[in-house]
Amino acid sequence: MKLIISLSGSHPNGLKYFQRPDYDLAIRTARRFRSYDTMVYMKPDQFLRLAADFSPKRDTISNLVSALKDGTQFEQIPYLRVSETDVYGVLQVEGHEGRHRSLSIKHIDPDCLMPVRVYADGLKWKDEGLLGKTITLIDEDEKGHTVKVRVEDV
Hints:
There is one protein chain. By secondary structure, this protein is α/β, with parallel strands linked by helices. It has four helices and seven strands. The chain has a seven-stranded mixed β-barrel. Helix 1 links the parallel strand 1 and strand 2. Mean pLDDT is 86; it is low at 1-10.
């Protein structure tokens, strides 16, 4: 069983920016029985709204953009660590990894759907009845940014 949260029926064209081994590992992990992990596909801006604010160095982003344009792929896909709130189907982002990757991809392909791992300690997606449901992710900085996603079993 593979649990995927999809923002649209579109093919996740952002896969081209990441090496396959980490993506394949994320999918295998999400498929495990009673997994705490799942995979989402979202636009870079959506990831950046959910992750904590940061001030990237211009040179770092410029170098990453150049590398991506030259065909280099990132080794690891970004992730969000989330926790349950008191409201069913609303999850709070508690941690992340991947702001530089997301910002770099945004410069090249802002509308792509890139893969993002989502880990929720103690939340087993299927057991909680979240398959087929729309959930809301709340930003890490609690500035009122949210992203609504539908949990799918594909």
